[in-house]
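Example with several molecule types.
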Amino acid sequence: MKAMKIILICLATAGLIFFAGNSFAKVTLVYGTTEKVTDMDPANAYDFHTWEIFYNIYQGLMGYPPGKTNLVPGLAESYKVVDDGKGYIFKLKEGIKFSDGTPFDANAVKWSIDRIIRIAGDPSWLVTDFVDSVEVLDKYSVKFNLKNPVAYFPSLVATVPYYPVNPNIYPADKIVQDPAALKGGKLVGLGPYRVAFFKRDQEIALEANPYFYGEKPKNDMVIIRYFADATTMRLALEKGELDFAFKSFNPSDINDLQKSDKIQTIVGQGPYIRYLCFQCKTPPFDNKIVRQGIAAAINRPDIIKKVFLGQNAPLYSMVPMGMWTHTDNFKEVFGDGNIEKSKKLLAQAGFNEDNKLKFEFWYTPSHYGDTEVDMAAVLKAQFEATGVMEVSVKSAEWATYKDNWRNQLMPVYLLGWYPDYIDPDNYTAAFAGTAGSKGNGIYFSDPEWDAMFVEEQKDPNEDNREAIFKKIQQMWTDEVPTAPIFQGTLYMFAQKSINGIMISPTLQFIYAPIEKAE
Amino acid sequence: MNNLLRYIIGRTLLTIPMIFILLSIIFVVVRVMPGDPVSSMLGGHAPEKVIEQKKEELGLNKPMILQYGNYLLQICRLDLGNSMIFKQRVIDAIREKLPATIELTFFGMLITLLVGVPLGAFAADKRRSAQDYSIRLFGIVIYCIPVYWLGLMLQMIFGIWLDLFPIAGRTGARVFVAGFDWSGLYVLDTIVAKDFTAFKDVIIHLVLPSVTLGLVLSGIFIRLTRANMLDVLKSDYILAAEARGIRHRRVVYKHALLNAFVPILTMMGLQVAILMAGAVLTETTFSWPGMGRLLLERIYLRDYPTIQGVIVVFALIVALVSLVVDIIYALVDPRVRY
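Resulting structure tokens for the full complex:
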């Protein structure tokens, strides 16, 4: 009986606790994602989600207002172009402080850029390809000396590698993975939020930064919850546990959620593209005929129908649809699932039914959502439908995937691209310019192409640039360093009580304007 | 030195060769598994230099006996090496996931005992009645059901249709884990932090996974308890107790059950290994961020050092629990230590 009484008392206590209500005292938004944070360091992070967090905890000298594409001054008050376009002087706003109260000045800008160059991490090419040196002119003036004139340099300055970090916190020559590795153990930035809590792959809490110089966010805290799978995230959203969820839902979940009365859909029609890469120095893919043969076998509408339930659009150029200079060259030259052309081209390269082109085809299951494995399977089937290719599909987790492309271990592999800056240059030079191509593991290099990129980068005349980009897109179908597959649509889902969510055309997602109706 | 202390020391010393044999088996099994870990990681296009570099990094270029020696030394230092896939120490990954599995298996075992022991005792008491047959049938059926199928059914009924319990994760998205996370054992942490909203949330998240795990194993305990109770209930002292006018319920559920409990205790130790195996599937079904899911995820990624590390930790836990159970056994039943 005594044991029974104890059990009853325990149950009663548990019951009382069970029904005791509580909630977040401040305006706290709970955001779900299946993405993963890589390095909490602008010197090495080069992925959509980590950059998204950086857009909210750091600031650039220039930036985009939420949901807009017009570039406006951020930490800079103004800028002027000097030395015939080879120099940019930025006048900084005064009185700005880092989120720990440390004053911000021109030294922090120079120190941060020098650090990016020194560390030479994944996104460093956005600095090193263009910037020769940085000079501090006075406490609030900084000058960028460029290697060549670059017409869109202010757009480049709005990218993450140009974001100033606190020199007292970050190590000068080491990449930081977690905030715990920073001096003081806390991440210090200049943006509207600061990191209150960080537990990798589980939870990151961002709280409003009291030292932020700009408009105060419309919420006090954003808690990012990391989900291992898209279905669990969908259920959490439907149960009201999440205020909003973004990247990446399964295509069937997207269809269902769009029909829900309780959930609102926010669509990001941005320049997000997916494509096939070839390691152009690895035989037989150093032969452009082989690359052409593989590109001809790709059937884009088939992939979109089978894997994405019609939710994306086929893409026939590396320059996305809707962006100036875009042309559908791949459609004209190769079409879709053109087996005869593929066989013919591969025959020219010496491959046939008796001597098949055998290769490893790689994808990563941990970076582009749960559909990636299906896309790899459909592509393998398309390649093998020619009868002259034998494909073995291999996969690697994202960190290993990146190491593999650096070490040239993946002859053919899938990648995706979100823009660093809105310009066709970012969709072409990044894959076919010698430095950018190496950074993506493609290792394509041609002096003629490099010269064309330098030409378009320094030419402020849009007509001239357009002519160059059209020629580059045409040449792409001959060299095929990469083969475009589709242009993606980004879907975000939120409770009806949530207002102010905007995915800008630059695919930046800023948390500050998001508010919750009572 | 008294007999109990001698027994404990002897049993503890016996654990050392047991662990040694377990570790040796793990070492051999991981290495005789088909496929070379380096080739599977780098693919067929890796240059010889890169393969050699990776082998050196992982210590796979050394003679097998040296690898074995290093492996044992590393485990003694609680160093399980580095993940082949993630830039992370294996021990860090395990430290992060282990509390979730301990919590799940603890509550799973609790459910097993709460369901299995009383039902077994009741069935023995009502021998050859309709209740007895029903409970025995339940015991057999529940033990035959695959744990993942039961998990899916409970998810569908109590999570989706009735919407009573969450079906995934350790906490709801609105619970601020940073506010209480200290040991990783969330039930304990929320009590220490006096965060009763979070406590409630943690408990309701535990219900379906621990019931799934616990129910499947309860079948064995029903049968074991029933069989032992039947033996005990035939004893003379039970007849004497009844003759002295002690209430039947007290005789059965106190005197008889306590005496029937000793073999159940032994079975509890043995069942921890099965519980751990069940946790792998339960954690996957319920998106429970524990060791089971870690193991499955890393098998998929062929992260051999982590696979080996997780199995080593599982083996150590089973060995440790066996030791503890045997010591408790000796405390409960003095015959063991003489």
